[in-house]
Write a structure and sequence with these properties.
It is built from nine helices and six strands, in the order H-E-H-E-H-E-H-E-H-H-E-H-E-H-H. The chain has 277 residues and is of the alpha/beta class. It has a six-stranded parallel beta sheet with strand order 1-2-3-4-5-6. Bound molecules: iron/sulfur cluster (SF4).
């Protein structure tokens, strides 16, 4: 994963660009369940709202956790299908936390109501990512659901209110590429912590819809826009910091002026460094 904000901040500050810390082992995205309440047209796991054969039992899932620990995996992203449909999600999550895994949830957000958000926070999830593949109409068309956007947004807000770090993930396609600025602006206005841009995966139903993938021109334009936007944000942050530092200096100097007693006639006022002695 390439962290564009950190890269741009390093360039702005004259570098060097920080070298990502080498993780102790691979980060694992674990598709805990194939069932999903949605039926998106680009779903790489061909999920739908039915029980699939061959899912892991709870004890098998806990055994997998032990195997991942033995393989020095430091972080798990619990995904699906829709992981919130897994009845033993919190049992698996609690054990994972006890074993020291860094824990994230990847969800479509539509089932993420306040009670789930509170349990996720209490179970020690570090981060919740929710997919938004465009603004309302585009997202609902992708998700083949009339209210997926509204419910995903409610889920994001519930997770945020519960104190979880939240992120928006967007899979780039030819159709939604032009909405990238709107989705990013929307995420920023919502105070979302992270934005993650993903490529289209040619597996599952994604394979039969691969002609929807963003073509070169749209991908180039989207990435150019993203780089420009993140660069401008980094520069704005520095301008805001400088402005704040100037105001603080001016405020301090005005306060010192007010606190300095008027000098008696014929004598100099005490130097600021003498104040408070
Ligand atoms: S893409 Fe995600 S939300 Fe959509 S059907 Fe597949 S698992 Fe469910």
């Amino acid at each position: 994963m390439f962290r564009l904000s950190r890269f741009m901040e390093a360039l702005r500050d004259g570098g060097p660009v920080p070298v990502p810390r080498k993780p102790a082992g691979p980060v694992v995205i674990w598709n805990l369940i194939r069932r999903c309440n949605l039926n998106c047209k680009h779903c790489y796991s061909t999920s739908t709202d039915t029980d699939f054969k061959g899912e892991l039992t709870t004890s098998e899932a806990l055994d997998v956790l032990a195997q991942l620990k033995a393989a020095h995996v430091p972080a798990l992203i619990l995904s699906g299908g829709e992981p919130l449909l897994r009845a033993d999600l919190y049992t698996i999550a609690s054990r994972a936390r006890e074993m020291g895994f860094h824990l994230s949830l990847s969800s479509n957000g539509t089932l993420l109501h306040a009670a789930h958000a509170a349990r996720l926070a209490a179970s020690g999830f570090d981060y919740v990512g929710v997919s938004l593949d465009g603004m309302q109409d585009t997202h609902d068309r992708f998700r083949r659901s009339g209210d997926a956007f509204r419910r995903a947004l409610a889920g994001l807000r519930a997770a945020h209110r519960a104190g979880l770090r939240v992120g928006v993930r967007m899979t780039l396609t030819e159709e939604n590429a032009k909405e990238l600025p709107a989705v990013v602006a929307f995420a920023e206005a919502e105070g979302i912590d992270k934005f993650y841009l993903s490529h289209f995966n040619y597996a599952g139903r994604g394979r039969s819809h691969r002609s929807d993938d963003a073509r070169h021109t749209a991908t180039r334009a989207a990435l150019d826009w993203l780089f420009d936007h993140v660069w401008e944000r980094a520069c704005q942050a520095r301008r805001r910091l400088r402005h704040w530092q100037q105001r603080r200096r001016r405020g301090l100097s005005a306060a010192l002026d007010r606190a300095t007693p008027a000098a008696p006639a014929g004598r100099h006022a005490p130097a600021p460094r003498e104040l408070g002695r």
